[in-house]
């Protein structure tokens, strides 16, 4: 029975548990029914046995109960005793309370008799304490100027300001206003206020420009993770959205409603209390004890109780002697960087001194010259660093030149020579000077990298400075918010066009975030103009265009400064310039440097760092400006987000569109024209290497014109990579001069093949189809040919294709000499043009991939900026791919013309076999003259073309000679009337001479040549066999030659050989069997 588990039964009586386990569970039911048990006992056969079992179970249960009672008996007794003790204590307490009530009543009665006398003594004590307090305050106030000077010397400015404010508040108390001895103290404190103001302002100025002791020297985005996004205290009622970086600063700068713009702060009193009358029950304060704190502890008194408040050791050192207040608690709780805390402290000091407007005015006045000096010093330091590390720079310059291959490809080693030899003759292995920029001004040149490094360095400094201005600007605006709210109603009644931002700017002395950003961008724009040699007229024109564009949006009279919608900053040009004559893009590129003699030009000295200056440095300016604008947008609070949309980036983009791109297009158009119009542009190199090399660095003989065009294309794509937003326009320009170059190549091709039979034949549909099916076309740089061709064509199919093509060419006999390209220079030009076109096509494909990456990059940037882009990456690569296909198609046409030309040349020479009788009376020692001419021509042309085409292309050009020569030789027997033994030997000698010539060409398969020409010799040697032997040979080798070819063997007359009259019939029977 589980109900008895856990009972206190000893181990000696463990049998009790076994007995209990045997008892049925029904005995422990909540509603016990005895009737079933009674009936069971009565109806049992052994009634006495059942009754005995029940008695035994009853004994077991009684024994268990005895064990339980024995175990818990002592506990029951203790509980009863404790309860009795508690009752007794309660009774005694009630009696004591009654006695205490009686005593209190007697005490109250006795105190009531002395009430009036005690009140008089208390009032006298308070009066004397107040007098003593005033005397102590007068004594301590007299020591305050010296303590302020000491704190100022120790740069404990906040403690000094606290002491000054508290002293001034105490001097305004009723009891101290008429004390004559404190007049000198008042005058001295007034002077100290000015000293404190200039000291604090100087510290703030130093830290604004990262020159102070606690300034931040790291990049502005290195500590993004350290800036918390939550605030400790919500304080300002004038809540406005701010940036993530400055979100906490506004809340931390407000000290519980302390601080009006006029400096009327309600601070803790000089004696540690919070009231002004001093009528508290407390001891005399000691000003020295409260101000002279050590770094970690501060003693103070509140409501007459001495206490010690411990400061965290994380409190900055400049606040170590400050009186604990709400601002100090906020500084201690915040996790802002050290320089931010220091800026907060300085702004708080200015606000407590009531000098917000004066500080803003001075900061605004000193902003522009300070930024100018900082940029100038930054450039000088950069120049000194460059000069100090000039040996390493030369080494890195060499490595950078080697790395130029990554963008410019192999042409990086073929930098165009800018200096020609005498009489305008270029040295071997150099290109025409067609690039409008020097190597230093190229997209990856030294001047570009130097300008980019310089701007990145300057912009990083400017950004860190601007971050400080955003912090200070928001703090000053938040401090002036209450003042602005007070004057809102009055200003609204006076002027319906009242602007709160304008009023806030007036309260802060004209200083604001928008003003500081305007000045910073103006100075950066001036530096960019100096780097680009841009004229004030051009920049002012851009500013005028921008202003007009902004004015055309929605004219509104109630916008005084336009700071809500966009940033319109004034370009700083203090010098007057003569009007520049319109002489084209050369003046823009070189810079209009003519100035009036009486004007002062303010510069930054960037020429000391940059090897060259000019408009082409726009490429290195664009990316830093874009990054600068993005970082400015990330720093700006939400209410100023529109300030970053227009300004420096807008100026640079307008400059690119209005000046850089037109100038570059004109210059590169001239370069393209110069590259393709010179006589040497499409002239194969006279001293090419002995063997062909596919690498441009090792002397691949690409035509100089196409090499120069490829160089210019790569250079323009380099500009596109530097300025991705304008990649579409630059790629269009590349397409334009690639199209012009293609037309020039097409013209050179037509000049070489015009009215030639080979050119007309490749245009025929049947020949074009056969050439596409020819396995030899696998080497052609044309993907369409390779797709339409079966790569695993059998030998029989290949022989059939060659036979059909040979039949078409042989049907053109007689071939006239004027229909052939007899000038070897034209053939060499076609070979070189084909290889050069293929090289440019490959380069165009690589340029297309580069352009796509650039376009994808700008699409990502445009998506982030929510603008539209005119062209997509797929469209750019499609256009460039179409140009690559056109170039390859023309290259294939050149190879096809050369192949057909060599086959026609073979047919032209071998057609003399048809007019000659081979009935020689003696064995000739030399081949026929036309064979000698043909072999010498093949050898000469192969040697001349070998430096200009790859071995596979040479195989294609000369590979068709063997098949056409074999077929022409075999078919020539049909036109012969007679031939003797010496004639057969002469033809075999011709075949051997041709085989030796073709086998000498390394690119040709000598086994294939031997197999085809062995067939010719075998065919003519059959003429030496008797007719019966010939028929027997035919029956054994029926498929070696065709029926017409065997028939011609029987038709020709051979002296000494008799042909039966039924020889043709027997031949037909043999071949038809």
Automatic annotation (TrEMBL):
Alphabetic keyword roster: Exocytosis, Protein transport, Transport
Region (Disordered): 271-292
Organism superkingdom: Eukaryota
Domain Exocyst complex component Sec8 N-terminal: 16-151
Pfam families from the UniProt entry: Sec8_N
InterPro entries found in the cross-reference section: Sec8/EXOC4, Sec8_exocyst_N
Start-end of Basic and acidic residues biased regions: 277-292
Record keyword Protein transport present: yes
GO BP: any one term: protein targeting to membrane
Listed GO CC annotations: exocyst
Regions crossing the membrane: none
Family statement drawn from the similarity comment of this UniProt entry: Belongs to the SEC8 family.
Known role: Component of the exocyst complex involved in the docking of exocytic vesicles with fusion sites on the plasma membrane.
Protein name (record): Exocyst complex component Sec8
Organism: Trapa incisa
């Amino acid at each position: 029975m589980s109900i008895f588990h856990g009972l206190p039964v000893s181990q000696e009586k463990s049998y009790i548990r076994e007995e209990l386990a045997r008892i049925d569970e029904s005995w422990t039911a909540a509603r016990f029914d005895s009737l079933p048990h009674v009936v069971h006992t009565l109806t049992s056969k052994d009634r006495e046995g059942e009754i005995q079992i029940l008695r035994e179970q009853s004994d077991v249960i009684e024994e268990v109960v005895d064990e339980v009672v024995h175990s818990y008996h002592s506990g029951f007794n203790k509980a009863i005793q404790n309860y009795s003790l508690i009752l007794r204590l309660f009774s005694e307490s009630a009696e004591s309370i009654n006695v205490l009530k009686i005593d209190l009543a007697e005490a109250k009665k006795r105190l009531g008799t002395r009430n009036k006398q005690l009140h008089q003594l208390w009032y006298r004590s308070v009066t004397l304490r107040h007098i003593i307090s005033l005397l102590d305050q007068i004594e301590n106030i007299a020591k305050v100027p010296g303590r302020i000077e000491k704190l100022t010397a120790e740069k404990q400015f906040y403690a000094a300001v606290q002491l000054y404010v508290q002293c001034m508040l105490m001097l305004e108390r009723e009891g101290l206003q008429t004390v004559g001895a404190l007049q000198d103290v008042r005058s001295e404190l007034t002077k100290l206020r000015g000293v404190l103001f200039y000291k604090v302002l100087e510290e703030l100025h130093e830290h604004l420009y990262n020159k102070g002791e606690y300034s931040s020297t790291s990049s502005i985005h290195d500590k993004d993770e350290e800036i918390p996004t939550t605030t400790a205290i919500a304080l300002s009622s004038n809540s406005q959205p701010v940036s993530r970086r400055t979100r906490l600063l506004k809340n931390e700068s407000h000290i519980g409603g302390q601080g009006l713009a006029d400096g009327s702060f309600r601070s803790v009193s000089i004696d540690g209390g919070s009231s002004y009358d001093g009528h508290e029950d407390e001891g005399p304060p000691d000003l020295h004890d409260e101000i002279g704190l050590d770094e970690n502890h501060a003693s103070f008194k509140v409501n007459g109780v001495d206490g010690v408040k411990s400061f965290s050791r994380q409190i900055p050192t400049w606040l170590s002697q400050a009186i604990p207040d709400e601002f100090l608690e906020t500084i201690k709780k915040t996790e802002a960087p050290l320089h931010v805390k220091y800026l907060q402290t300085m702004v708080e000091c200015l606000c407590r001194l009531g000098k917000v407007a004066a500080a803003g005015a001075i900061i605004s006045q000193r902003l522009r010259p300070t930024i100018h000096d900082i940029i100038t010093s930054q450039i000088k330091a950069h120049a000194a660093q460059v000069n100090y590390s000039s040996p390493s720079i030369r080494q890195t310059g060499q490595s950078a030149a080697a790395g130029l291959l990554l963008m410019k490809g192999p042409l990086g080693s073929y930098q165009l020579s800018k200096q020609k030899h005498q009489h305008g003759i270029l040295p071997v292995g150099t290109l025409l000077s067609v690039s409008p920029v020097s190597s230093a001004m190229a997209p990856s040149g030294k001047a570009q990298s130097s300008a980019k490094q310089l701007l990145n360095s300057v912009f990083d400094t400017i950004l860190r400075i601007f971050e400080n201005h955003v912090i200070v600007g928001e703090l000053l605006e938040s401090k002036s918010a209450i003042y602005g709210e007070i004057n809102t109603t009055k200003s609204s009644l006076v002027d319906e066009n009242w602007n709160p931002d304008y009023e806030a700017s007036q309260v802060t002395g004209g200083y604001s975030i928008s003003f500081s950003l305007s000045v910073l961008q103006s100075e950066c724009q001036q530096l960019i103009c100096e780097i680009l040699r841009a004229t004030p007229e051009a920049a002012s024109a851009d500013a005028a265009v921008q202003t007009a564009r902004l004015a055309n949006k929605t004219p509104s009279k109630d916008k005084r400064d336009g700071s809500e919608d966009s940033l319109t900053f004034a370009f700083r040009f203090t010098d007057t310039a003569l009007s520049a004559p319109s002489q084209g893009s050369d003046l823009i590129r070189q810079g209009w440097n003519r100035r009036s003699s009486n004007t002062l030009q303010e510069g930054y000295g960037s020429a000391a760092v940059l090897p060259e200056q000019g408009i082409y440095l726009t490429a290195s300016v664009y990316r830093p400006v874009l990054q600068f604008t993005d970082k400015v947008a990330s720093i700006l609070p939400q209410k100023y987000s529109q300030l970053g949309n227009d300004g420096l980036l807008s100026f640079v983009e307008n400059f690119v569109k209005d000046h850089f791109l037109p100038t570059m297009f004109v210059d590169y158009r001239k370069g393209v024209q110069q590259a393709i119009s010179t006589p040497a542009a499409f002239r194969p190199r006279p001293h090419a290497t002995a063997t062909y090399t596919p690498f441009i660095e090792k002397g691949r003989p690409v035509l100089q014109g196409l090499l120069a065009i490829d160089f210019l294309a790569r250079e323009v794509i380099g500009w596109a990579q530097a300025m991705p937003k304008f990649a579409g326009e630059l790629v269009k320009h590349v397409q334009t001069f690639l199209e012009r170059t293609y037309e020039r190549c097409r013209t050179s091709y037509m000049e070489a093949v015009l009215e030639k039979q080979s050119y007309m034949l490749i245009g025929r549909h049947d020949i074009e189809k056969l050439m596409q099916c020819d396995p030899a076309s696998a080497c052609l740089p044309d993907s369409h040919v390779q797709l339409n061709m079966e790569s695993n064509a059998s030998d029989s199919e290949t022989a059939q294709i060659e036979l059909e093509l040979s039949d078409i060419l042989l049907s053109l006999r007689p071939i006239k000499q004027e229909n052939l390209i007899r000038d070897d220079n034209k053939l060499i030009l076609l070979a070189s043009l084909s290889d050069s076109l293929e090289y440019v096509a490959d380069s165009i494909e690589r340029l297309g991939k580069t352009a796509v990456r650039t376009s994808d990059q700008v699409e990502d940037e445009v998506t982030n900026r929510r603008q539209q882009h005119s062209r997509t990456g797929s469209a750019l690569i499609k256009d460039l791919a179409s140009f690559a296909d056109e170039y390859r198609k023309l290259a294939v046409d050149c190879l096809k013309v050369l192949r057909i030309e060599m086959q026609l040349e073979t047919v032209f020479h071998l057609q003399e076999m048809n007019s000659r009788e081979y009935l020689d009376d003696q064995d000739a020692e030399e081949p026929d003259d036309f064979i000698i001419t043909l072999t010498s021509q093949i050898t000469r042309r192969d040697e001349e073309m070998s430096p200009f085409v790859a071995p596979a292309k040479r195989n294609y050009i000369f590979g068709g000679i063997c098949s056409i020569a074999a077929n022409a030789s075999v078919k020539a027997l049909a036109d012969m009337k007679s031939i003797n033994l010496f004639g057969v030997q002469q033809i075999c000698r011709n075949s051997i001479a041709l085989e030796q010539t073709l086998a000498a060409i390394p690119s040709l398969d000598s086994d294939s040549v031997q197999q085809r020409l062995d067939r010719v010799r075998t065919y003519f040697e059959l003429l030496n066999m008797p007719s019966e032997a010939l028929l027997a040979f035919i029956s054994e080798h029926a498929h070696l030659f065709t029926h017409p070819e065997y028939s011609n063997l029987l038709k020709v007359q051979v002296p000494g050989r008799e042909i039966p009259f039924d020889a043709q019939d027997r031949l037909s029977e043999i071949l038809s069997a």
